[in-house]
Amino acid sequence: MLPTLEAAELPADAIEVGRIADAWGIKGWFKVLPHSAEPEALFSSKRWLLQPPGAAGSQAFKLAIREAKEHSDVIVASSEDVPDRNAAEALRGARVFVPRSSFPTAGDDEYYWVDLIGLAVVNREGVALGSVRELLASGPQTTLVLDATEDGKPVERMVPFVSAFVDKVDLAGRLITVDWQPDY
Question: Which residues of 100-110 are buried (b: 16+ CB within 10 A; e: fewer)?
Fold first, then answer.
């Protein structure tokens, strides 16, 4: 990693939002492969936290972002701390984190996937269906992947995350209510 970057600890709310792929041009710009199709967090935060490839734990480095913009299927960014191509190449493979607190505010009936992970899911009758392990983008809709236990055995359920089946998302109460039955 660059010796000119200031060391930092990843905050408790740090979310990995991308990875630096390579240098871009000769003036210190670099390419970032975002983990999201809509990488607003990369644009809204002016300070990223980088973790070198293979690093473990919460050790990271601060990177002040001068500019970040879309370019084809990647994001390109620049920083005062990265003056040339050689410095940008030294960032290759670094994981990019942004504090969740610096994400833009979601609109009405919009949710960041990271906020849904771990939420309990119950149906209208109050039957527990499991907790959200992950979300899958499956063409025109997103699907909640739930982990549950039935008769002491692990069970995976999938529920389309669309208004026809999702009645309510209560982030504060950590609960999603759905129109779905356990045997679907």
Answer: beebeeeeeee
